[in-house]
Amino acid sequence: MYYVSKRLEISSAHALHLSYESKCENLHGHNWIVVVHCKSRELNADGMVTDFTLIKREIEGKLDHKNLNDVLPFNPSAENLARWICDTVPNCYKVEVWESENNKAIYERDE
Known about the structure:
Shape: elongated
Helix content: 10-25%
Oligomer: single chain
Structural class: alpha+beta
Number of helices: 3
Distance between the termini: 14 Å
């Protein structure tokens, strides 16, 4: 099994739609740290699991310096963001999304 990981820093804003009152319902920003983990039993024709440039383009290119509420079709919590990234990147099986130094969400695909 081959494994690769790509770490990205993304600056973006969001406002959460919650079932309770919270300051997070107001538009606010984060410098997110996103770690994308991919794996494959075989390498592609270019000798890669997933091209690091592709990961950057698919994730940073769509989310960096954006209001996540404007570009994503769901409530942009860290958990939902991790799941969306995992579904977007080829061969991805796990995503870590750090909303702040102390708050991290992880999505790992069931095999």
